[in-house]
Specification:
- The structure is a single chain.
- The chain is mostly helical and 202 residues long.
- It has 8 helices and no strands.
- Helix 4 packs antiparallel against helix 5 and helix 5 runs antiparallel to helix 6.
- It is elongated.
Length: 202
């Protein structure tokens, strides 16, 4: 007897396949036909169009799912650190390293024009969640005196510092061209954050 997959499982399968293709080739080089052919449904267009009206719509679902997964991953680091009574410096270091890794991953979409704008708009949601998490940790480190305060870094300026770190790091990494040296860019970002917050990002 053949077991039929639940609809939500089928939709998730399509999203995962599309995500893999978008990351490998970039949005422009992936076709709906290619996504359909990768499913185990004998390449039926009906399955795809039952859930999605277009390539743009499945792309939006891919990005939305990535954002949800990444927010959950960041929240897990934050809550686990607090639950295990981990020092704030260790927790913020893990968060910043994950944020930088994911920013580089987004570059693989290689989008341009309106399609890049779509990615940028959705990315703002992720950045806002990162900003609130990092500020929470910076405030904790300042309150517990685990990092020194000065005229630039203090509780009154922590929101500005956090915004500068998050938007600055993401802005640099997501705007690198394919020929740019990503390793060098990442190293300079780490040096800047280390200097500003007195951290030791690897």
């Amino acid at each position: 007897m053949r077991v039929t997959k639940k609809p939500d499982v089928r939709k998730k399968e399509l999203i995962e396949l599309a995500k893999k293709l978008f990351l490998e080739k970039g949005y422009e080089k992936v076709s709906v036909r290619e996504i359909i052919d990768k499913t185990d449904s004998a390449g039926s267009p009906g399955l795809f169009y039952y859930y999605f009206k277009s390539k743009k719509e499945i792309y939006e679902s891919v990005i939305d799912e990535m954002v949800n997964e990444e927010i959950a991953e960041r929240q897990l680091i934050l809550t686990k650190g607090e639950r295990d009574d981990e020092d704030a410096i260790s927790t913020i270091t893990k968060l910043l390293e994950l944020i930088q890794k994911d920013a580089l991953e987004y570059q693989k979409f290689d989008l341009k024009g309106k399609n890049k704008q779509l990615l940028d708009n959705v990315s703002q949601r992720l950045i806002r969640s990162e900003e609130s998490m990092i500020k929470r940790l910076v405030d904790r480190m300042l309150t517990e005196h685990t990092i020194p305060t000065n005229e630039i870094l203090n509780l009154e300026s922590s929101q500005f510092i956090t915004t500068f770190i998050i938007y600055g790091s993401n802005g640099i990494l997501t705007n690198l061209n394919s020929e740019d040296d990503r390793v060098t860019a990442l190293n300079y970002i780490k040096l800047f954050i280390n200097s500003l917050l007195n951290l030791k990002l690897d």
